[in-house]
Design goal:
Length: 267
């Protein structure tokens, strides 16, 4: 039986995490008319350079075309999208050694295994985006819970998330492993997005300094960032969680987005 948004909402209510009043959950399998709105909403919050990952561009259509039942939209009382949770299933043996080599590798593995007919046992988070105007409404945590629930209802045993920390862009010279280990006085993670996952039962695993790679010409990087790069070297650009390496002789800029694995046991 297909997993519906209504079934997910009921499961969340039973879990003690009901949707906000007047809101509804839907999958793209149920509401194909939401595809354009979901895509626009999901891409609206990222810095321009993050929209030029070749792995994402190659694999992205599979989510709505082949994995629509794993694509979630939270709708307000007017039917507008206020949060999305995007994911793709894959196979993973449960060991740290078998974790994908970052977000790019995770997404590629989902697509490759689908094309080869390999049955998944794990759900891989692709992204969660919430309306910036709704900060404070705890929609991020709600969508993490919804993603876990959709995995459980599909019989998958784990959710793996290659998490891009919210505040790392303020500390782009700090290695991801060091940053992920920072704690508040109460012992919880310093980063708010990592902290949400941990509060919901996720456990921190391996850091991935090169989780997503984005390359472009110097001119493209200047257009993406609105900055000039007059000499070769490392540059801090708005929205980046690590420096961008500019090589003017080769006319190429390279950025590796650092993430950290968080694992949610769904069994």
């Amino acid at each position: 039986m297909p997993v519906t948004g209504a079934a997910l909402a009921a499961a969340l209510t039973e879990f003690g995490a009901p949707l906000p009043a007047g809101h509804a959950l839907s999958t793209l399998a149920e509401r194909r008319d939401l595809v354009t709105a979901v895509e626009h909403f999901g891409s609206s919050v990222w810095p321009e350079f993050m929209l030029h990952d070749p792995v994402a561009n190659r694999c992205w259509p599979y989510m709505s075309d082949e994995f629509p039942e794993y694509q979630l939209a939270l709708l307000d009382a007017e039917g507008s999208v206020v949060a999305v949770a995007r994911s793709a299933p894959l196979g993973w043996d449960g060991s740290v050694a078998d974790l994908p080599r970052g977000w790019d590798d995770q997404f590629s593995r989902s697509v490759l295994q689908f094309e080869r007919g390999i049955a998944p046992d794990t759900l891989g988070a692709i992204m969660i985006v919430t309306d910036p105007a709704r900060r404070g409404d705890r929609l991020g945590g709600l969508m993490v819970r919804a993603m876990c629930k959709v995995g459980r209802l599909h019989g998958l045993r784990a959710l793996i998330a290659c998490v891009r920390p919210t505040w790392l862009e303020h500390y782009p010279l700090t290695p991801i492993a060091e940053y992920a280990a920072w704690r508040r006085d109460d012992g919880l993670p310093f980063d708010p997005w990592i902290r949400i996952h941990v509060r919901l039962g996720g456990r921190l695993s391996r850091a991935e300094p090169e989780s997503m790679r984005i390359t472009g010409s110097v001119g493209e990087w200047e257009a993406w960032t609105g900055m000039a790069f007059p000499a070769s070297g490392q540059y801090i650009v708005p929205g980046a969680c690590a420096p961008v390496e500019i090589d003017r002789d080769a006319d190429v800029g390279t950025y590796d987005d650092p993430n950290v694995w968080v694992i949610h046991d769904l069994s």
